[in-house]
Amino acid sequence: EVSRSVALLSLSIGSSPGGSASLDPPGGAYEAGTPVTLTATPDPGQVFTGWIGELSGADNPATLVMDDHKTVSARFEGTLTVSVASAAGGSVVLDPPGGVYTPGAQVSVTAHPDAGYLFTGWIGDLSGSDNPATLLVDTDKSLGAVFVRPTLVVSTGPNGSVTLDPPGGVYDAGSVVTLTAVPDAGHAFSGWGGDLAGGSNPATLVMDGHRSVSASFTAAPGVTVAVEGGGSVTLDPPGGVYPPGTSVTFTATPASGYEFAGWSGDLVGSENPTTLLVDGDRSITAHFDPLPIALEELKSGTSEDRDTVATDAPLAAVEGHLYLAAVAFKPDVIVTDVSGLGLVWEPVAAQCGARSQTGIALWQARGQPLGDGVVTASFASAPRAAVITVSRYAGAEGTGAPVSANTAGVAGSCSGGSDDTAYAFDLATTAPGSRVHVAVAMRNKDHVPGPGWSEQAESYAGSGGSAAGLSVALAAAEQPALVSVEGSFSSDVDWAVVAVEVHTPIAPQ
After folding, report:
1. In this structure, are residues 369 and 343 in contact, taking their beta carbons and an 8 Å threshold?
2. 5: pLDDT strictly greater than 60
3. What is the pLDDT of residues 475-507, one digit of tens each?
């Protein structure tokens, strides 16, 4: 047997103050080609920073193959700390983590806000609001992050206010807030400033940060509307005070018996509805003219020996039209009531013949009928014969002061008279465009109206000496004047006449 001597290679290991180094396998003497694991172990408060000698880098553990004699040292250095203060509303993450670093290390610092919060900046040894931010660890460091819920601050001038929905002014991040500008009387909202622009009202704002908004108000242009005649005007939008540049629609609505005639002032023409751009104070007048009075309908009826008389056919129900019921009877009796169309009827005048052989009564109604219907007159006692004629007028407001007559004269008595063949008396009209309505009771004689008069109806009930006759005639009075009420009969008769002005509307005040 031959013995062989193997030359061993030496590995010398040392360290700087602050730690130690170990070998695996241990001993320090190795055959060539042996791999050796070197492990650096820092003391508390120290960190391993790398190898020097015949091993470089900072791998720990590290492996060295023994191909020659080797000398290696482990290097250690003291550490620095980074401390993070806790804060409500979020957290901070360090990269690399741990909070213990070698001098000169660069640490990435990231703020993570909780739901509803915003990161607004760093405090302590880190400033600004970069996120993430980089921190150079050259001394011990202390830092914190500020997390808040965003706030909304609103400022206004002296002429209005702003409401917030939801209210409060402090919101979760990402919330949507609706702002509504409310101008004071006589003012208008003119626009937003700050973190909200434009003139939309209401407007919305996303709270992704602190926000500051202002609202401006200006004295608003006013629209003054006057009305001449009977009618009214509506504005859309309503109010009469608007932001400059508002487009306003004007609608004229005539009162009953009137028609719209046109605009004047800052609005001209007769278009209705019409639109005006309000860029300054505006004054507008709407003109309404009375409709011409027109006899639209006439219905008659008769009865004998009954305590009522009614039209043979219904009259149309038209809101605002004037209804005149003329009732003639033989002999003279009292009309106690007139009814029909759901209207309230009122007496205008009554006149007996001068020998009480006949009589005439005139009643009127105006308003909102409930529906078409006949008109009925009721008597205190049943006459031998009776006739009713009901006239419906459009464009009429009502009646003036009536005048009645018989053979004994104007407002003649019911006895002491004598029969004759004609009548004539004056009636004063008071309004332009009026009509004069005359009702004549003439028993069994024919009636012929005078010059300028147009007979509208002539009816009879009964026969011979028991007959009742009724004529209704109409004359125009375009201007206030004395109108001659006149007519004649086929022969002498005990007659009775009632005349009344049917006038145009009086403009509402």
Report:
1. yes
2. no
3. 999 899 999 999 999 999 999 999 999 998 654
Measure the CA dihedral 301/448/485/400, to 10°: 20
Per-residue pLDDT, 507: 46
**In contact, 240 and 222? CB cutoff 8 Å:** yes
Q: Provide the pLDDT confidence category of residue 3 given band limits of 50, 70 and 90.
A: very low
pLDDT band at 509 (very low <50, low <70, confident <90, very high): very low
Nearest to 368 by CA among 306, 410, 318, 406: 318
Per-residue CA distances from 152 to 175, 177, 190, 216, 295 (Å): 11, 9, 20, 17, 70
* Two tokens, residue 393: 């007028």
According to the 3-state scheme, what is the secondary structure of 18-74?
A: CEEEEEECCCCEECCCCEEEEEEEECCCEEEEEEEECCCCCCCCEEEECCCCEEEEE
Query: SS3 of 265, please?
Result: strand
Asked if 148 and 117 count as a contact pair (C-beta separation under 8 A), the reply is yes
Cβ-based neighbour number of residue 336 at 10 Å: 13
Cβ–Cβ < 8 Å for 286, 252: yes
d(CA 114, CA 149): 10
Output the pTM of the full model. Answer: 0.53
- Report how far residue 391's alpha carbon sits from residue 472's, in angstroms, rounded to the nearest whole number: 9
Q: What is the mean pLDDT of the chain?
A: 92
pLDDT band at 1; cut points 50, 70, 90: very low
Write the CB contacts of 364 (distance below 8 Å, at least 6 apart in sequence).
Answer: 322, 323, 324, 325, 345, 346, 348, 398, 399
Can you give the pLDDT at residue 241?
Answer: 83
Count of all residues that appear for the chain in the document: 509
Residue 287 pairs in a beta bridge with: 228, 262
8 A C-beta contact, residue 467 and residue 461 = yes
CA separation for the pair 246, 240 (Å, rounded):
11
Region for residue 57 given its phi and psi (left: phi exceeds 0; alpha: psi -120 to 50; beta: otherwise): left
Residue keyed to tokens 């939008």: 237
Residue 300, token pair as written in the block: 């008659």
In this predicted structure, the answer to whether residue 256 has a pLDDT above a threshold of 80 is no
Alpha-carbon gap, residue 301 to 308, rounded angstroms: 11
Secondary structure (DSSP) of 174-186: TEEEEEEEEEPTT
pLDDT band at 218 (very low <50, low <70, confident <90, very high): confident
